[in-house]
Amino acid sequence: MQQNKSVSEFIFLGLTQDPMKQKMVFLIAFIFYTGTVVGNLLIIVTIKFSRALGSPMYFFLFYLSFADTCFSTSIVPRLIVDSLSTDKVISYSECMTQVFALHFFGSMEIFVLILMAFDRYVAICKPLRYTTLMRRQVCIILIILAWIGSFIHSITQIFLALKLPFCGPNLIDHYCCDLQPLLKLACMDTYLINLQLVSNSGVICSSGFVLLMISYFIILHSLRNHSAEGRRKALSTCTSHIFVVILFFGPTIFIYTRPPTTFSMDKMVAVFYTIGTPFLNPLIYTLRNAEVKNAMRKLWSIKTTTDIK
């Protein structure tokens, strides 16, 4: 596709222009990113090597942690470097790559959250059919479909981005490349493209959130027929999932389901789902999950014993 553009690079304005605040951004982003990578990799390794975590719920949690790690890596390292740099320059091709990665792993997270909700629904509402409906082959097929869906969504976003002509200015009022800030720089009427954006990203976010809330409502409603211990365990798991869903979908719905208007708070809202959620997910899924914590302790004790020998 031939590009009608004269801009070969963009300049991020970042979260702030104040030198002291930029140092704070560096410190906070570095801490959150380090926690995100370490926490999610710890979950990935634990699920990979622990026999006790072989259920479909942990199979999907493995891919959620993977998506979180890649999603955060596509954005935060650049923010960390830019917070210490005076020239926050990104080339056109790098910008398009970031748009693709942002939407690919972001939509992957949405699809995996939906699969995790479906897994809990079957486990709690259809327990006698659980082993049949959620057998290993079915879980693998569902994850493959999630990868395909994420790829189709990201390709659509890139197609929209490549249609935008840029002839200056090239200042992106954000800390990462996404279609919303890029629409402001395009040398064309972007109403139709924004409409396509809302019908794509907006529909995925909104429909995903509604679907998840309905599924968890059905799950919680069905718990009245379970034992007290069963209700406690199911409530603990579902509460963690609902918290993650609200934390991730609230900001994304705010960003992707509105007319082509920007607000001063947009960048701070984006921080919640690009930096906050990937950092909190491993904390939520380990601190509130006894099975994961016990599996981590066993793996650590085995590793320590092996090192001593």
Automatic annotation (TrEMBL):
CDD domains (UniProt xref): 7tmA_OR4A-like (cd15939)
Membrane-protein topology: Multi-pass membrane protein
Keywords, comma-separated and alphabetical: Cell membrane, G-protein coupled receptor, Membrane, Olfaction, Receptor, Sensory transduction, Transducer, Transmembrane, Transmembrane helix
Domain G-protein coupled receptors family 1 profile: 39-285
Keyword Transmembrane helix: yes
Gene Ontology MF, one: G protein-coupled receptor activity
Compartment(s): Cell membrane
Coiled-coil regions listed: none
Transmembrane as UniProt keyword: yes
Pfam entry (one): 7tm_4
Transmembrane segment boundaries: 24-45, 57-80, 100-118, 138-162, 201-223, 235-256, 268-287
GO terms under cellular component: plasma membrane
Protein family: Belongs to the G-protein coupled receptor 1 family.
Protein's name in the database: Olfactory receptor
Organism: Orycteropus afer afer
